[in-house]
Amino acid sequence: QVQLVESGGGLVQPGGSLRLSCAASGTIFSVASMAWYRQAPGKQRELVAGMPSRGSTHYRDSVKGRFTVSRDNAKNTVHLQMNSLKPEDTAVYYCNAILYTDSNNLRNYWGQGTQVTVSS
pLDDT below 50 — which residues of the chain? Predict the structure, then answer.
């Protein structure tokens, strides 16, 4: 089966930067979409950025101009570059992948999450 593993989280001061990575391993026929979500304590999980294989990358309004998502198809890896971080960005960040397990079937996978804390 497929496993997603996030890395790169940590503690940074406001205005700082972090780069998150998510590596997918296992049997993957093809990738339909990869994305980053986040969940702050007491709040619902929300989409941060999504990169469909066919279509345009999209970002939630609060991170536009600060966050950039990229994907390395050869390595089945997605990255989230986070700049100008704000305390409001503090959350557990989750990698999400929608993958074809064969030519006709899709499955939704989640990583275990990585903590991002923005604090002075």
Answer: none
